[in-house]
Amino acid sequence: MTASDDEFLEKVLKFLRGLNPWAEAQAGAEIDPDTDLIQTGIIDSLSVMALLVFLEDETGRHVPLEDLLLDSIRTARTIGDVYGSRTPEAA
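The structure corresponding to this sequence follows.
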């Protein structure tokens, strides 16, 4: 991971921790890069749109809703791996 990858992952984690006041309680622990966001309910049908807006804001690129596959948003690490490469610095 490069420094920009680490920075993007930290931004993703900060977003996820602020997504819902109960998110970490729902996960049973602090949200870390490998917390299963789907299984714990941190990412649900309502929060997917907030995640989409966050990713578009952070990457500066349009992210089609159909690109948000469950496996690409399952953990903060996978979000970082898939969408971090789309940031302007990575281009």
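Residues 3-19 form the longest helix (17 residues).
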